[in-house]
Design brief:
By secondary structure, this protein is mainly α. It contains 19 helices and no strands. It has 3 domains: 93 residues, Serine Threonine Protein Phosphatase 5, Tetratricopeptide repeat, CATH 1.25.40; 158 residues, Alpha Horseshoe (Serine Threonine Protein Phosphatase 5, Tetratricopeptide repeat), CATH 1.25.40; 76 residues. InterPro entries: TPR-like_helical_dom_sf.
């Protein structure tokens, strides 16, 4: 009987494709975890096996360029024509071309003021804000990442976010979350590099929605005076009260540590002028006025003592600077009451 070979089952082809896809996703996770040397053979094997996607070439090209291997440039140049990954490949090539200049600019001391550090609390990460605009698969992955963040499982959240990038590579908000998680997991250098790449891609697309989030990433990854001051001013320009309440006082304190009391006063004045109803802005402005000896101006701002602690502390500060000796017992008593969480508003008006 004549024997005819049966056609190869399609499952094997599909299985190979799925295996290569899984290897690339694993390689992306390794890169995010700082294990680039382990990712290189996975990406090379996928390309040599005929994997058609440009993502493998872009990932490998970026890694090779960082390692000084010029083959990375060739891989990226091939990928620039891809509809999905082309923009990222172009940005990586531009980053490589401008690396020396950018590094010199970053390392050069500021001509305006000393590059001193600022004190910031750890970066807080809230729910991912753009889930509703993602493809369903990417949205599900980011929802899982949010759940991991809420549980404090930041490494798992980072892995999921890297995977989501492969599902929605055109959405820069996922890459911003990636950068935030790099900061939260103490990978500051990688966070800065990723933030710089995102900024270049956003500039190519004329997108500005990520500017404030990226400024926050940079400030926490490298909390220099310049970076924190830039974030504070960006928060003021955007009218973001929550970020202003956090970062303007930090920038003011950093300016004072750098010996720039006038700059601290100017920043506090700008904040109070923009948010006259903010008790925190008023307290910061009062403090800087008192520090500069402008007691009368500070007193004008505390004529009406509010119910909130910040307003009350501002009034106490002015009272301490202007009050007669007979007021010190009242000041001390009110300070103790404020610390205990009970303030007699009527008595406070006697300040």
């Amino acid at each position: 009987m004549e024997h005819f070979d049966e056609p190869a089952p399609t499952r094997s082809v599909s299985g190979d494709s799925e295996r290569l896809r899984a290897n690339i996703e694993h390689a992306a996770a390794l890169i995010a975890d700082g294990r680039e040397d382990d990712a290189i053979p996975l990406l090379r094997a996928a390309i040599e096996a005929g994997y058609p996607g440009a993502d493998a070439r872009v990932l490998l090209g970026e890694v090779l360029l960082r390692h000084g291997d010029t083959d990375g440039r060739t891989l990226l140049q091939v990928a620039t024509i891809d509809a999905t990954w082309g923009a990222r490949a172009q940005a990586a090539l531009r980053a490589a071309d401008g690396h020396a200049e950018e590094r010199a600019a970053v390392e050069a001391p500021s001509r305006k003021r000393p590059r001193r550090g600022a004190r910031l609390d750890p970066l807080t990460i809230g729910p991912f804000p753009h889930t509703n605009r993602l493809p369903p698969a990417a949205a599900r992955v980011m929802a899982e990442a949010d759940a991991d963040v809420a549980r404090g499982r930041l490494e798992s959240a980072l892995d999921l976010t890297v995977y989501a990038e492969t599902l929605a590579p055109d959405d820069l908000s996922i890459f911003v979350r990636h950068a935030e998680l790099l900061v939260a997991t103490q990978r500051q250098a990688k966070a800065l590099a990723l933030a710089a790449t995102i900024r270049r891609l956003a500039a190519l697309r004329s997108e500005t929605e990520h500017d404030l989030a990226l400024a926050r990433v940079v400030a926490h990854a490298a909390p220099t005076l310049d970076n924190v001051l830039a974030l504070a001013r960006a928060a003021l320009a955007a009218g973001d009260a929550s970020l202003s309440d956090t970062y303007v006082p930090a920038a003011t304190a950093a300016l004072l540590e750098a010996g720039d009391a006038a700059g601290a006063l100017d920043l506090a004045r700008e904040w109070h002028a923009q948010a006259p109803g903010s008790s925190v802005a008023r307290l910061t402005y009062v403090r800087e006025l008192l520090r500069s000896g402008q007691v009368a101006e500070a007193a004008d701002l505390t004529q009406d003592v509010g119910h909130d602690p910040a307003s009350f502390v501002a009034a106490l500060a002015v009272a301490a600077a202007t009050g007669a000796k007979t007021q010190w017992s009242l000041i001390a008593r009110l300070a103790r009451d404020a610390a205990a969480g009970r303030v007699d508003r009527i008595e406070a008006q006697r300040l």
